[in-house]
Design goal:
The complex is a heterodimer. Chain A has five helices and six strands, in the order ααββααββαββ. By secondary structure, chain A is α+β, with helices and mostly antiparallel strands. Chain A is globular and about 40 Å long. Chain B is α/β, with parallel strands linked by helices. Classes of the chains: A alpha+beta, B alpha/beta.
Chain lengths: ~100, ~425
């Protein structure tokens, strides 16, 4: 029972359920890396992104754009409006099969 | 692709497809441009599709559309940590023609709906992103796409590009949304045997149930959860204002896990298997967040125009109605040979006079009010639960004693006045 409860809780397991056709280049970019480094102690995008694609790596923001749900939260939620957000190339990105 | 059309519709969701369908049916040469591999591949919703507005486009659609279950029961759970006060309505009239609403899976439904527009003569082009509107002398005259030589020209462009309408924003029709104007929803589709669903939710075959979750489902943050029955799966999700997630530093998928593991919800899901995980934004700013919806040669519909009634979890129906009214207006404009903002403004007038505009106006202050005063969700719902527990627990105390205790638990006379004032305010923003 407790084993069953644990299954599927992590973001990695959730993302594994989704089909992606990733482009070779990212549709998301940090406009000014300096701002993440010096002006943004919370790095809140690493918390509210539903696919957890933003990861702070010591000195820079890594964006795992391949797993993006294209929801737009990061563009709106970044307190410094520091994310350049466009749609992935036609036919690329997330492909929902059901919902 | 540098062909000329009467109309270009950007985005094959409920608004765009409804619009393209009506335009093609009316004899217009229309192209429907979709960025996904197929219509529905980028689209997410909890899952309730309303019959009336869909029938306004395709009468009797339910005889052939890929639907999950007609909803015969709508329940509402006001949740505390280990309890819930539940109410709802179940009626057999919803289980037969003409039906009230259905659960749908969007990837299936949108593909079907788009195929109907194609049958009417619309040209559907998938896997194509519209990168910008082509504007000449202040008039939108076409669109630029991410295909080689991908310029397309038309008399009118309909922007049905969803909540992230970069196109409407770039035309200056609305500003970038604030985090308290959008809700971030995450959901999962959970596979579960038909028979188990019917037993668990007290349903017969081809009957469905929706449960809306308030209070502890969102840990007291403004938002709701939902649990809907599909044919052989459940849709469970939770959505809160993006500003709430930011303020409370909550990971959205952890909130989803919290709801799934809640003692009021867990038993419904037992033994189910995850099929898909989805995230999407919902425009919840309401009437006050709506931008400009018409310009010279351009009309905005659906989520792109912020047409969502968050209080009643309605969106796709507003989208379809806006798409249909946009098409009617464009057909009129074609007759007149006039695609100016002055003529196309008839769309806005008609939309605002319909239930879409009326409901947007009715609830114009509601999201803002409940966001500003969190006590409704984080105090009053738990209070309601404690009162119910007190009243219905038989422990030898008289009912008078119990009522006295409930009354005392509400707090000081000042607290009571505050609650009465909040109740009045809630009524004011909902009336």
């Amino acid at each position: 029972m407790s084993e069953e409860k644990k299954k599927g809780q992590s973001i990695e397991e959730k993302q594994y359920l989704v089909r992606f056709n990733a482009d070779t280049k990212s549709h998301l970019h940090v406009k000014n890396p300096e701002i993440c480094m010096t002006d943004c102690p919370d790095k809140i995008c690493t918390i509210f992104c539903p696919a957890e694609i933003y990861k702070w790596e010591d000195i820079r923001m890594h964006i795992g754009y391949e797993g993006c749900h294209e929801c737009g939260s990061c563009r709106i939620g970044c307190p410094h409006e520091n994310i350049d957000w466009v749609y992935p190339k036609g036919g690329h990105g997330i492909i929902f099969r059901l919902g | 692709m540098s062909e000329r059309f009467d109309c270009i519709v950007v985005g094959a969701g409920p608004a765009g497809i409804a619009c393209a369908y009506e335009l093609a049916k009316g004899g217009a040469k229309v192209v429907l441009i979709e960025r996904g591999e197929y219509p529905g591949s980028k689209n997410v919703m909890g899952g309730v599709l309303y019959r009336q507005m869909m029938e306004d486009v395709i009468p009797g659609f339910y005889q052939e559309a890929p639907l999950e279950r007609p909803i015969v029961e709508q329940r509402f759970m006001m949740m505390d940590k280990e309890s819930a006060v539940t109410f709802g309505y179940k009626g057999m009239e919803w289980g037969k023609e003409p039906y009230n609403n259905f659960t749908v899976l969007r990837a299936k439904f949108d593909q079907w709906f788009a195929s109907k527009a194609v049958e009417q003569g619309a040209l559907l082009i998938n896997e194509t992103v519209v990168t910008e509107c082509i504007v000449e002398e202040g008039r939108v005259v076409g669109v630029r796409t991410d295909r080689p030589d991908g310029e397309v020209y038309a008399d009118v462009v309909v922007l049905a590009d969803g909540v992230n309408s970069l196109l409407a924003k770039s035309l200056g029709f609305h500003k970038e949304y604030r985090p308290d104007e959008v809700a971030l929803a995450t959901m999962e589709i959970l596979k579960l045997d038909k028979k188990v669903i019917e037993d668990r939710f007290n349903l017969e075959p081809n009957q469905g149930c929706t449960i809306e979750l308030f209070g502890d489902a969102t840990k007291g943050i403004l938002g709701t959860g939902f649990l809907y029955t599909n044919k052989d799966s459940l849709s469970i999700g939770v959505g809160t204002l993006l500003s709430g997630l930011i303020k409370h530093k909550i990971r959205p998928y952890e909130l989803l896990e919290y709801v799934k593991d809640h003692p009021m919800i867990r038993p419904y899901l037992q033994g189910s298997e995850q099929q898909e995980y989805l995230a999407h934004l919902i425009p919840e700013g309401g009437y006050k967040s709506m931008g400009k919806v018409v310009g010279d040669g351009v009309i905005v519909v659906g989520d792109a125009a912020q047409l969502v009634n968050a209080i009643h979890r309605e969106g796709s129906n507003l989208a379809m109605t806006s798409g249909r009214i946009a098409a009617e207006t464009i057909l009129l404009a074609m007759q007149a040979g006039d695609f100016s903002e002055a003529l196309l403004d008839r769309y806005r007038v008609k939309l605002m006079n319909s239930f879409v505009g009326q409901d947007m106006k009715k609830y114009k202050d509601s999201t803002h009010h409940f966001d500003k005063f969190p006590q409704y969700f984080d105090q009053y719902i738990p209070m309601m639960n404690r009162a119910a527990s007190q009243m219905f627990t038989v422990d030898g105390k008289s009912k008078w004693e119990k009522q006295k205790k409930i009354w005392k638990d509400i707090g000081s006379p000042r607290e009571k006045i505050k609650i009465a004032r909040d109740a009045y305010r809630a009524w004011r923003v909902m009336k």
